[in-house]
Amino acid sequence: MTDMKSTECPVLCLGEALIDVIKRAGNVEEKVGGSVFNVACGIASLGHSTSLASWWGEDERGKSLEEKLASAGVSVVPGSSKAAKTPIANAQIDDNGQATYSFELEWQVPPLPKASSLSHLHTGSFAATLTPGASAVIKAVKAMSAGGTVSYDPNVRPSLMGSPEEVRPRIEELISLADLVKASDEDIAWLYGKDTPIETVLHKWKDLGPGLIVATRGPWASYALCANDRDMLAVDPLNIKVKDTVGAGDSFMAGLISGLLDAGLLGSAEAKQRLRQARLSDIQGALHRATITSGITVSKVGAYGPTQAEVAEILAADPTL
């Protein structure tokens, strides 16, 4: 089931694009990245018309971002390259492949296309909370939620967001406006305390209004909770050798958005209502696509957006996924 609007109008990803300076065992490597940038590339690689509104510089690093976007098939919202310089995320990779981050950046929002010209808006991470751009993000989310669909990933960055107490009201406001929310277990622990059960937080967020909430849990099963279903679904990750976790959550998000768009559960006002009436069986295919895309990503170094063909190959090898 697919709406005309979701096939004709692009998905807009609104948020950061930056350079990941990856430090691992004494080696330093630069790769294009950023949570929302990665999601945009992932959605486009899975066959959806996608644009990105962001904030980078007209420098060599900015050119590398633009080259990657072009190769992935992502269009750029005009004005996105007006920053003084391209942002940097310093990613320190430990022996287990886990990444910790520090940042050098500023965040503003270029002029955005009208919500009526879009099928879906995705945003998240510090773009939704860091001034001065955050006020433009919340304005865009409100406009889009009135006639289309919105997805949101808090993707917390403590070094940029302040304390949990400071940022939690804004995050919960965005959750209340979103149709789809995805967060990691680490995000939830930082926001509500490590002793607060994930299930408690998901039910709290469900009461705020989204149609679907998903919590990823690294090597453990992801949890999914529908607005119209009392039960929670657990989806196991792929059994795959992990090279690093850079971009894994973003790849999961891209796969999930793609799957829900193809199922007619995102992309229009009608899809918004269908998502709120959906049961876990209706969203299981999208969750499996997300699991596959993130599994492919962690099998490679750095953020990587799998293609439709790669996902199909995994499914062909194991139709039970």
UniProtKB/TrEMBL annotation:
Which Pfam family is one of those matched by this entry? PfkB
Domain spans labelled Carbohydrate kinase PfkB: 12-306
- InterPro entries recorded: Carboh/pur_kinase_PfkB_CS, PfkB_Carbo_kinase, PfkB_dom, Ribokinase-like
| UniProt keyword annotations, A-Z | ATP-binding, Kinase, Nucleotide-binding, Transferase
Single annotated GO MF: ATP binding
The record, for PANTHER family, names: HEXOKINASE FAMILY MEMBER (PTHR43085), PSEUDOURIDINE KINASE-RELATED (PTHR43085:SF1)
Give the record's family classification: Belongs to the carbohydrate kinase PfkB family.
What is the protein name for this chain? Answer: Carbohydrate kinase
